[in-house]
Automatic annotation (TrEMBL):
This is Protein farnesyltransferase subunit beta. PANTHER family: GERANYLGERANYL TRANSFERASE TYPE BETA SUBUNIT (PTHR11774), PROTEIN FARNESYLTRANSFERASE SUBUNIT BETA (PTHR11774:SF6). One of its GO terms (cellular component) is protein farnesyltransferase complex. It comes from Orbilia javanica. GO terms for molecular function: protein farnesyltransferase activity; zinc ion binding.
Length: 509
């Protein structure tokens, strides 16, 4: 019988294929080193089924596939060019952006998040940027609540989302290893200036009666807005009482109807649209799956609200051969950013499927991989690395900061096994939070193969990381920040709220 339970981060499996013939049963570090291998046939041939009707789309698909075949046909995968990518991502932070980026003035928090989170995934300590991030984001806080994309601009929920993620990432890095009092000071400088009361009132203004959200007052309605709003509420420590609202002021529970709204966004294909009756899209699929998993465990969140079988079918159709990467919609080209928007869905779907399978009997089973991690890794390493640093959509496209972040997030999803652990210890704040389920995710370097119905078999999927130096950092599968950053921030809110309560009592006396 081979162990199939998830392991703690860094823990090695007690049973492994390469170690079975060793007399002493020891585990060798080179177990993960990928030996030269034949390129899988799926990467060497055009799709077996081609539409007789030629269109501009079909011609672009064939052209893209032919181009990518030339890149993925490599027996030895190229290493992750970590140093060059780091230099590419440090440049805008240290040297500034060129004048051409003025068109992205409303995306300042996004530019910070993309570069800083990508650097964190690559193993860089981005704590040195914390003070600059705080000083850059403070002017974006709107007097009426929320964050704008640039100085003096109206608040937008995506700007608030990117701002909070960036603050959470840099605070986590700069506070690691500090004494408790200094760690609390770091978080106070990073978050105590945020007007949570006004932010909450602003989010109430963009909530719709049907359970959805708008991106800003008078803006468009889509599930991206709902996901961003829930992430902001979760990371800023709002509890059930705060979100329930004040009936005397005509306030309704802020989370009322949210899950039902997301449920209504699943399409006939099985994917998720931007809103009810819209086309299925990978980015919106991730937003809905992650948002639902913020509200409950993955098995309940997905099986209760979505047709999981149709969802799995649609997600499976997004991974292409010969490319190995993902497309975002039916009949669309592969794109590196969907390594996150579709690849990131699989951790949540597998966690839900594992719970469903285990619930059928007393024996613990594991469904294993429902997607090809190896194919995505091959696509990223051979096709998405820019020759002069940065990561990109596909060969022939220039790298950029957006794709650098989301391609690396997808690489993390492929290289690590993320799973939900409902026995994970909770803080007193998370116990009162409607988002407490978001703090129960863990990771392992060891990716299990499927086990049999009796719990036997399984083993470990090998060859995902050609060399340990190519492994990137672990990221939270719902928040897309370093795994552990969410817990540190939550513990600070626990301390901050306790201190605030004491101060309030002192003032009353």
């Amino acid at each position: 019988m081979v162990q199939v339970d998830p392991l703690e981060e860094g823990e090695q499996p007690r049973f492994a294929t390469q170690a079975e013939n060793n007399p002493d049963g020891t585990f060798h570090q080179n177990m993960y080193r990928m030996a030269p291998e034949r390129v899988p046939a799926m990467h060497l041939n055009l799709p077996f089924i081609l539409d007789d009707l030629e269109t501009e789309t079909s011609q672009k698909q064939l052209s893209t596939a032919r181009n990518i075949i030339r890149s993925v046909n490599q027996s030895f995968l190229p290493p992750l060019d970590r140093a060059t990518h780091v230099e590419f991502l440090l440049n805008p932070l240290d040297e500034g952006l060129s004048g051409g980026f003025v068109a992205l003035d409303a995306s300042r928090p996004w530019l910070l998040y993309w570069c800083i989170n990508a650097l964190s995934i690559l193993g860089e300590d981005v704590g040195a940027y914390n003070a600059r991030v705080v000083s850059s984001l403070k002017p974006l806080q709107h007097p009426n609540g929320g964050f704008g994309g640039g100085n003096g601009q109206a608040p937008h929920v995506a700007a608030a989302y990117a701002s909070i993620l960036t603050l959470a990432t840099t605070s986590y890095h700069v506070s690691r290893g500090l004494p408790e009092n200094e760690r609390l000071e770091v978080y106070a400088e990073s978050f105590a200036w945020i007007d949570r009361g006004k932010l909450l009132q602003w989010i109430r203004k963009i909530k719709l009666p049907n359970g959805g959200f708008k991106v800003n007052e008078g803006g468009e309605e889509d599930v991206r807005a709902g996901y961003c709003a829930l992430v902001v509420l979760a990371l800023l420590g709002y509890d059930e009482e705060e979100l329930r609202g004040d009936p005397s002021l005509g306030e309704l529970p802020l989370l009322s109807g949210v899950a039902e709204y997301f449920k209504n966004c699943q399409t006939w294909e099985g994917g998720i649209g931007a809103k009810p009756n819209a086309e299925a899209h990978g980015g919106y699929a991730f937003c809905v799956l992650a948002a639902l998993c913020l509200l409950s465990g993955p098995e309940e969140a997905l099986s209760k609200n979505l047709d999981l079988n149709r969802l799995i079918s649609w997600l499976s159709a997004r991974q292409y051969a010969p490319e190995g990467g993902f497309s975002g919609r039916t009949n669309k080209l592969v794109d590196g950013c969907y390594s996150t928007w579709v690849g990131g869905c699989w951790s949540l779907v597998e966690a839900a499927a594992n719970a469903i399978e285990c619930g059928k009997g007393s024996t613990k089973v594991n469904v294993g991989d429902l997607w090809s991690r190896k194919a995505l890794i091959r696509y990223i390493l051979t096709c998405c690395q820019g020759p002069h640093g940065g990561l990109r959509d596909k060969p022939g496209i220039r790298p950029d900061y957006y794709h650098s972040n989301y391609v690396l997030l997808g690489l993390s999803a492929a290289q690590h096994y993320y799973y939900y652990d409902d026995s994970h210890a909770q803080s007193s704040v998370s116990a009162k939070s409607p988002f407490r389920h978001a703090y129960r995710w863990k990771s392992s370097k060891n990716v299990p193969k499927p086990s049999g119905d009796d719990g036997t078999g399984g083993g470990w999927l090998e060859g995902l990381v050609p060399d340990e130096s190519d492994r990137v950092g672990v990221q939270h599968p719902l928040f897309n920040i370093p795994l552990g950053a969410e817990g540190q921030l939550q513990s600070w809110w626990e301390w901050f709220n306790d201190v605030s309560d004491v101060d309030a009592v002192s003032r009353e006396n």
